[in-house]
Fold each of these.
Amino acid sequence: MEAGQALRADAARNRARIIAAAAQVFAERGLDASTAEVAERAGVGEATVFRRFPTKEDLIAAIVATKLEEAVETAAECAAEPDPWRGIERFMYEMTERTIGDRAVSEAARDRCMASAELAPLRRRLIELCCEMVKRAQRAGVLRADVSGPDLAFLIAAVGSLDPLPFPGLRGDLWRRYLGVVLDGLRPEGATKLRPGAPARRLIELPEG
Amino acid sequence: MEAGQALRADAARNRARIIAAAAQVFAERGLDASTAEVAERAGVGEATVFRRFPTKEDLIAAIVATKLEEAVETAAECAAEPDPWRGIERFMYEMTERTIGDRAVSEAARDRCMASAELAPLRRRLIELCCEMVKRAQRAGVLRADVSGPDLAFLIAAVGSLDPLPFPGLRGDLWRRYLGVVLDGLRPEGATKLRPGAPARRLIELPEG
């Protein structure tokens, strides 16, 4: 490896470390946490953080992009699960757990993710993978016929909102119980007609078909 | 009716009008809305609002108490529905719609409701009624056997969180679609084992049995 390459690899690692540290700090202490805290967690100087991310907005945008990339990776893995139902189940659990885990970032992500033109290709890819997962499970007869990819995202958002729970001291994994109810509701066995009949396809750039 | 009685009835009506107006204004514009706006909506002078509710906290507490009373009334009606499943369904739809309708107040309500010792009897009554509804539906074989009253509240909170939707322009009643999935998940037909097995009973003052 040449010196230039090594430097670039080093810079990329540093950047990833800052993003991961910031995601943790924001999740624990909200978006008001300081750059000093982020730098400390990442084990770099504050100046390094500012050089790479001049404003907190830049840092948040980078976290959102990273989380969206991770979501696409997870969706791709789940869409390739040998058992199609297991794929749906795994996707729902993993994504809900992440949503619960970093509420502050998730809310920022939700707003920014939808607004950013730059993230449109990743967003589209994520929805495509969700649709793929859904159709595959429907073909196998293990998922109700009247849901589509974006429904998974809304249901994850719903269950992922159950934190903090309104009763202090309740066990933190209670959301799993409610995701269990949702997953049973997604099975074909007890499916009754849903109203409204479908999420609005155009508005969320849903691929046709 | 004596003059004193008429005056008291008049005062009670005024009070109820201010609470209803404040609930509307806060729902539309958030808890930061001014007392002047509340007074205008209620058609009373600002001084009247301040005389009855010296601080905004007093006003919010009164709204929360009123909403909890309304919830208890709804629960009692639903628990008395001739068709036990219809009772569950109606309770879930009506409560979720209210949660969606006034998000700002709902969040304040959730915090205050749980913390207030004064509201404990109403809270307990609401949970009792939920448990009654659930047991009745289970005895009729129309509700999965492994859920309890508080589960209804958590599921309402989850679906009720879907506003504002992350995609601008989506139809506002999309939550009904997801409540439909949840309700299908509550039916006995496709029920699989839920983990964790139960919400924490003690912490939410759940009646025994």
Note: DSSP finds nine helices and no strands in chain A.
Amino acid sequence: MVRLDVKIPQVEAGSYTIYIEAGSLCAIWERLEADYPNLQKFVVTDANVAAAGHLATLIGKNSPQVYSIDPPGEASKHIDTVIAIIEELEKAFFGRDTLIVALGGGTVGDIAGFAAAIFKRGVKVVQIPTTTVAQADSSVGGKTGVDSSISKNAFGAFWQPEAVFIDVKTLLTLDDRQYCAGLIEGVKHALIADSEYFEFYEKNVDAIKNRDLDVLGEIALKNCQIKASVVEKDPTEKNLRRILNYGHTIGHAVETASGFELLHGESVAIGIIAAGMIEEEMGLATGRLGRIEQILRKLGVPVRIPAEIDKKQLINIVKRDKKAVNQWPKFVLLEDIGKVLCKNGQWAVDVPRDLVEKILTDLY
Amino acid sequence: MVRLDVKIPQVEAGSYTIYIEAGSLCAIWERLEADYPNLQKFVVTDANVAAAGHLATLIGKNSPQVYSIDPPGEASKHIDTVIAIIEELEKAFFGRDTLIVALGGGTVGDIAGFAAAIFKRGVKVVQIPTTTVAQADSSVGGKTGVDSSISKNAFGAFWQPEAVFIDVKTLLTLDDRQYCAGLIEGVKHALIADSEYFEFYEKNVDAIKNRDLDVLGEIALKNCQIKASVVEKDPTEKNLRRILNYGHTIGHAVETASGFELLHGESVAIGIIAAGMIEEEMGLATGRLGRIEQILRKLGVPVRIPAEIDKKQLINIVKRDKKAVNQWPKFVLLEDIGKVLCKNGQWAVDVPRDLVEKILTDLY
């Protein structure tokens, strides 16, 4: 037998910058033109973002090609939307010299980022998140993906943005439900990494609910710092990055089982409570679940599984979790507020099926 | 404004192995089980490959999950096929611990490789190419992709295989047309990198047409060596790798314009002649086009654009080339047999539109 080894060369380290400033949206387009003069800009957004005035603020007097995702929200986070975007790029003769500008919430960023990852084997993308969830989480870290007809994020890629621009003033146009749900990823960051940051939520809950721009700026920075420190160490989720999935295993399943009636952050809130109950059952918790539940309740998100959700279906979705091995996922659990349990070097650990099933029953 | 830099860490160098041996197909499954004991194997193939007996030879008494692409060939190299494969993986509860085993020609490899690249943000794939074109070209180098309804390879990713297994004996079941068309990528390798290898084609054309396994083994090795030496230096086609596209700019356009009635290798043969004519017009050639045309004719592939192909449509497709900038691609051209023209450090160079249009007219 003849053997021939093909080398895959080292890829050098790189970086991208997150810019955070209230009221900066109107200045970003000029910056994009200056930073990427040779790239053809293609904006991906949705009707809600346009209606809130953010598209007009971003582009000003410029008239770039714009794709508006319709309908806005999770229902469009599907491979069909990515296909439609890419065919639109092709019809307008966009090439590899494309810069996709993702303006909107988490679904816009996930869809646009994935389209960038697979259009002509990859083009550049900048993220301009306009929602609490996108600013706290999805715009940073390079995870992109869309759903299939069967499960969440069945299609996806790791594709780092060229830059992220955060203007917390865009959060003022969100409705209360979207706004509050998106705060939960920040609470999750506090739970996995920083007990002082958790106390910040406890102390500032009124200012947060009143959308105080200074407090929101502090939250945006803290979220990006925590997320960046994790994804820098493990960009493709071999191990440590999995701590960002705290509350997400049950959260994703609840979100899917609700037919996306529940928002992502609302589902993660339920997932955080589920994780806390698992921790109590496994003897890891020390009375902290009450504090966590209280802050989630104050932020106005659900902390129990809605009665309409079928438990059997929920279990089936958990089995299909994208991180499942042998049809059962591992779980990220806390040792304490601000500290994730690490067992034999692993940040996601085994939890027996019957224990999870019991907790799901209790959580209705 | 607050700025926060997110580091993207270095990715270490790696490698994968190409194994070449006539008659080895029956031993590969055992090797996969030994090398990847913890991965769930999912075979992607097509009805032609199964009918030729290669699927049975590969799996023997094992019964892995198999997805058979239907219909076989370019018509299925579409994003819809990738979606169908991924939904099949999901229905069978495959997770990130999946090994996709691509058994077949170039389209099977491209489809299966792309499905691996985007299923749950990427799973492992091994390539077992069974055609001349796949053994010469597409199974090595990590380019994956599928077509949209508008153009070729609109969707794609760079995704390296874990290993490539080449059994030249599988070539014995190909029909003459497929067999000959697939040889053209090897001729292209000779043209861009190795004049002695080009002479090897001239000397051994009868043995090649008679499918002499020793000669085919030599060709397989030479093709992999040339391709590997290029992709190692430039895995993501920033510059040097573009030399592998010799003959492909017009070739791809002719292939698309023929509605895929022409095979990839047949189209590339026409593209090689087009490139040669461009070289003559630009004063680069020294009477070598006759030699090139002769070997292509002996290998039984077309060297002129079929009359049915609409020239206007052809030009439009060239404008949409995935490497086009400002709606016009650059061209890879030869300085001599075995040597690509490099201009100001660039391996793909500008050619005026009217010159290309003139040559396309002459080439009918």
Note: Chain A has 14 helices and eleven strands.
Amino acid sequence: MAQFPTNLNEAIEWLASFGGEPEGGVTRTLYSQPWKEAQQALKGWMEEVGLLTYYDAIGNLFGRLPSPNLNAPTILIGSHVDTVKSGGKYDGAYGIIAGVLALLHLKKQYGEPSINLEVVSFCEEEGSRFPVALWGSGMMTGIYSYKDINNIKDSEGISFETAMMAAGFGLTEYRVRKDIQTFIELHIEQGPTLEKVEKSIGIVKAIVGQKRFRVTVSGESNHVGTTSMKWRQDALHGAVNMIHDLYESVKEYDEDLVTSVGQLFVEPNVPNVIPNHVQFTVDARHPKESVLHSFCQRFTEQFHDHAQKMNLDSQVEMWHEVQPAQMDHSLNEIIQSICTSNSITFHRMNSGAGHDAQLFARICPTTILFVPSQGGISHSPLEYTSTQDLEKGLEVLIQLLHQLAYNH
Amino acid sequence: MAQFPTNLNEAIEWLASFGGEPEGGVTRTLYSQPWKEAQQALKGWMEEVGLLTYYDAIGNLFGRLPSPNLNAPTILIGSHVDTVKSGGKYDGAYGIIAGVLALLHLKKQYGEPSINLEVVSFCEEEGSRFPVALWGSGMMTGIYSYKDINNIKDSEGISFETAMMAAGFGLTEYRVRKDIQTFIELHIEQGPTLEKVEKSIGIVKAIVGQKRFRVTVSGESNHVGTTSMKWRQDALHGAVNMIHDLYESVKEYDEDLVTSVGQLFVEPNVPNVIPNHVQFTVDARHPKESVLHSFCQRFTEQFHDHAQKMNLDSQVEMWHEVQPAQMDHSLNEIIQSICTSNSITFHRMNSGAGHDAQLFARICPTTILFVPSQGGISHSPLEYTSTQDLEKGLEVLIQLLHQLAYNH
């Protein structure tokens, strides 16, 4: 008989062993061998703690603690089992493990709930094997369909469909459930806020909207020494003026607005030649779509103005967009009162990263709770959250589910 | 018997055939087979037109039209035979060819000069095979010595010394000549100025000084979405503020100051990660050392100030420096009067690129004359100067040499 974990810490290490690497990282990409082994092991563990288990058509795994009331709706709790390449032990995994342990505790302590409680181990969220993210929650919420994976391949040329079928999934139609009443996710913060403000729980108000742009600036390549400043069409000088203004204008917005230029390429990129071509990315995020939209419109206009003044060509092209998702206010009020009455410190904040919860927010009351990430580090073998913080998150989740599913 | 060219245009095409490429470029790097063939061919041509020819110890080629006066000094005229990879037909080549044709004309027309006239085909100026530039003029002027090529290799791992000896040079001590009274170079402009101002001859006041820097900015890599603007240590944001200020402050200097950031690398250079490391180059040039020095000191201080304010580390390291070289005022006065009396339009200007003349300026009266480069293009197969412009340059050179070497 398999050895299953008996507490939070053991469970984190146990799940990290599927896809675990000698250097401490975890790689468990969608439909890979370590992924299959992890889902199968979680299924075994769920069954051992007394949950009814099953997969849906694409490999989301469920462990159900049913209500005796056959018409009861379902509260879904969980996160994703997949990881980025050489990721950490906590991202996704913590939300699934906490869900299983919460149901185990509630079942032992209080027996059958009046509303079905169900933990989910989403097959995919990271977008790290195929250029599709939030696959598990996207299909569950009916926002995605099989059409979204047509002609999509991984870096080795394996098609999404082939990989899915080889893992034993994608063989039947996907049936979108109608019984989900509430979705709750527990996740590491993946940022430095909770550590900086010294609080244990992050109560998420909204998952920010994102817009990502590719900006291309074109000028003329010339000899650095022989071309007077006034005759230059320097693409890097233009890009620098644009990015300088981008960061200046963000100061006029509220603190929730973040923007970054993470990637920048220069051509020909040699010391004594004036650059004729620069391409850079802009990532902008804010919890309110209207604010995000106005900011992006503003910098797009500024960029074109700079280009025109400097006799350069510019293109600003949006290549990725995510709508902001508001978390449920009532759920957050309950969480806050649980924290207060248990002397657990908390901080109301936004999530700057995307999560499965952002898609559920479109179909049902949803929230996501954060625990601190040491140094704000994530997507790295150095990802770490203290046992104490992990346990506080679990404690809040148990009390929340107790209030939602047993007080009827 | 070899076919030698009979006019300027023929000579340009003929010399370009040594190292000529199907796409129109010319590659004739130091001590390579096309280089050897070109120098040998030039030697043959010089002999045919009646010059005394010889090589020095490193492969500079000379063609001498001697004065009957055994104590006469020497006026040296010429430029470099080497090219960059896939360079043009005019850079360097024009100066040698014009020198040979000028001496041919003067000899035919006026016979023996009272001062020795000597054309030189410098072995190397571009620094395109080995990381040493101005090798030919550096050795002739005694500014370089064999020590400067110790431990220097080309991109294929061949040492400078091996390549030199394989070509038959570097076998004897280098003897620095004491008889050079004047150095005159005729060269394409390699910039757009003459074309923009619509003049035929550029009379060069100074070859600018250059300082080149490598700037390193280090911060901290973090998740774009989860890291508030106020907690960031964004190396690219820092670099952008530095470069923005660099280009702003250049506006406070005179028009002769040029500066450029030609190369910039970002790490990790992915759209959703805040850059933790940026490295960029700064190239600054001006004909006056004091101005150049003050500008470089100013931006170095500004860069460190920006880094400090933004909680970043910065390093500013100078890796290349060339002193400005003043061209001879009396020679330029004679050139100006020749232009005026022949209705040849001229423009007094600085050279933003380096040339052999800059080293000779340290040891004797020296000047360099420019002819226009179409579109300012050089170091490219597209390099082009019209026959008319080439001929005007040759005409001015002939009259200048006539005044200097025959009016005694």
Note: Chain A touches chain B through 56 residues (CB under 8 Å).
